[in-house]
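pinned: reference chain
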Amino acid sequence: MSLEQEIKQTRPFKSNYEKALVNIMFTNNWIHFKQNKYLKPFDISIQQYNVLRILNGQKDQPITINEIIDRMLDKMSNASRLVDKLYAKGYVSREQKVGNRRACDVTITPKGISFLEDVTKSIKGIEKDMNSLSEVEFDELNRLLDKIRK
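pinned: its C-alpha cells
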C-alpha cells in the first residue's frame, strides 16, 4: 500500500523530499509497532533489548552506563533506569567502578544471554514481515539511509 493510502492523504506531497521524510518516520513507527509486538510476550522494551544486545557484543568485557548511552540507538533513553530494570530481572550485573563512586561497570549475565537468545529468535519474525525486499534492495536501502546521514 502506498504511503498516501496508509495515511489517507488526499493532497500530493509538496516535494519528494517531504514525502521521503514522512515515509521514513511512518516506516520507523511501523517497525517499532512490529518490534513491540514481538517483544511484549517477553516483558521487555525496545530500549532494554538494545542494551542487552550492546552488552552481549562486549564479550564479557564490562562497559559503563555512559558507554552504553554512546552506543544506543535511542539516545534519549534513560540508560541508568534501563540497566536498573534489567538488573532487577537478573539479566545484567553491576559493579562499582574502582576510583569513581558514581560510575559502575555493567555486564550481561548468563541468564541475560539465554534470555537475549530467546528474544532474538522471536524478533526475527520481523524479517518475515519485511520479506517484500530482496537482499539487493536491502543493500541499496542501507546505502541510501547511510548517505542521508552523511
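why pinned: The chain has one domain: 43-148. The first strand starts at residue 63 and ends at 64.
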